[in-house]
Amino acid sequence: MAIDLVAPQIDDGRFPIKHITGEEVRFLFHPMDNEQLIACSKVDHERSNVILVIALDFHHTQTGGVDLPLADLGLDPQRPYHVHDRLTDTRYLWNGSRNYVEINPHKVPAHIFVVRRWGRTERDFDYCL
Fold this sequence. Notes:
By secondary structure, the chain is mainly β. The chain has one domain (about 1-15, about 25-120): Immunoglobulin-like. The chain has one helix and eight strands; from the N terminus they run H-E-E-E-E-E-E-E-E. The chain has one helix at about 1-15, and strands spanning about 25-30, 35-45, 50-55, 60-65, 80-85, 90-95, 100-105, 110-115. A six-stranded antiparallel sheet has the order 1-2-3-8-5-6. Strands 4-7 form a two-stranded antiparallel sheet.
């Protein structure tokens, strides 16, 4: 049922799917600390990563921590990285392999995060005083 709710939002162009011919695309499932949530990611040779989190409970808000294999996603564990939820157009700055997710099925049935491998912090800029 959750996939049926997400599919129309993917088909209307808000989440364009890039077709890769002849290249390996891997799907990885990630541990969650809530049995009502499933998380997986798509990793291709360009490391254009997408993380999908779906709630199995369609009536109640579900929260939990997702554990990501940063090396498989091409992410530096010492640096923050950006994730952009394409369903809600919300952006987050995540740190480390474990991050918090929340799904309220009355607002959005899932998260589809596009991952950017680098994140700038205030330490990345020179300041003139």
